[in-house]
Amino acid sequence: MIDVLFIILFVVSVAIAYSSYQARAIEQAFPNVGELTDVGGFRMNAVYLPRPPAADLPPLVFIHGASGNLRDQLEAFEAPLHERAEMLFVDRPGHGYSERGGPENALPSGQADAIARLMDKRGIESAIIVGHSFGGAIAAAFALRHPERTIGLLFLAPATHPWPGGVDWYYTLAAMPVIGWLFSHAFVIPAGLRRLEQGTIGVFRPNARPAGYVEKTAPALVLRPHAFRNNAADVANLLDYVKTQAPRYREIAAPTVIITGDSDDIVLEELHSRGLARDIAGAELITIRNLGHKPDYIATDVAIAALERLAGRPRDLQHVARRAEQRIAGILPAT
Length: 335
Prior knowledge:
By secondary structure, the protein is an alpha/beta fold.
């Protein structure tokens, strides 16, 4: 019995040491590209692009989804929006290189407040808030808690409403106090590195993952033990949170556009996107055929047209969406 216990402890110790080594290697491969700013007791990381002289859009704040970091939205939008707007790409509290802060940051409401404080530090009075996936819940929380600072809302494949069932077992396990620490420090990196390739392909399915996506957006950062535990807590808390908050979405008055795909197997559009369109008065729902969970990459042109619409320009978003469908189907050339 003692020999068996010794072997178990030895294996776990080796796994923890290996994970610690790999976590450092991940950070060396993907160093911080943002700047840390104190937002009241902890520091948030962000890439801030000041307002350019020829800006034709209001300030834009981009909020990434679960398992992500600021590089995801930065890679999708920085180049096509170059010189058009003041932009803030944030690492959500506890993600990327942002510190976690207090327990309130395990909920979208706390993260929305932290983003508002970061905007203060950058002199951004109000902005169009762009939320992808889990970031959609934070964008909705921002609009509820800071309506005077919300010029408009762009939801991209958002996760905002209750869904049947729960969450994947590993999120629940990783969020637990003691066993979660052990699981995250010993087993997540070895398993996660093996699944990273197929996992990122699955996020884009049925669309093709863009070339170089893994190298450019650093999804491996979430495998670091502290980041994985924070991500797990976010996901594990989301269902109960949206059960209480979804009835309040009717209070949102900001102009709203929702872009979703009819082939999204990660966040079901019939529950979340249609739910938002039902709940927010005047919201425009754009459903794109054969689009999965990444409209930020596969339908970037539709998202930019939506930003222009939220900025007050006349844009026929349904027409832009139909052209995106033709491009996805191969009828029109890729742009």
